[in-house]
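Hi U.,

Before I forget, here's the chain from the pilot set. I'm dumping it here mostly so it's searchable later in email.
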Amino acid sequence: MSPEKIIEAGLENFDAVAPGAYYGSAAGLSLGAGLIYAGIQVPFFDTAERRFEIIESLALVITNECDVANERAFDDHVLVCPIIPLRQYAESAIASKEYDHAINLIKEIALNRVNRVFFLPPAPKLLGEIEGLTDGGLMNLNMITATHVDLFKHGARPLCAFSAYAQGRFDRKLEQHLLRPKTELLPRTR
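Structure:
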């Protein structure tokens, strides 16, 4: 049982036509949708303590740049989705003795069959070493959260940006996850 087998299961089943076309440079881009940062403070639920803690994470910015820090009301927070490095997930699955389940789940995520999780391929070598994305990553869309724009000025670092191709895939995944019809009907009051 090795993390490499779990990582390989994802990469072998990844359904994108051009995994190398997922990322580009963040140079010259304003804080906004499609940028991946390191050092973002996000809540993480500690199941042993049964409370949230604040951790630093890789994260994809979801909020559009025109809605960020424009000195207008409600422009001081940014929606982000934390990124779980694929190697970290694989090591955690092995430690919790969920190896077989992790292999099967990663295959399904990579094939885009799990609505709540978005698969990220490894960042290409031409962008240099991008911490946390050398083996790829996972984004649990149920962990989308808000963080304050000041954190991007103090400590957070832009690592790279999604390509237009990757942003389009992510937008469709968000739509699929958040806007699909409810399984249970809501009550009608009119």
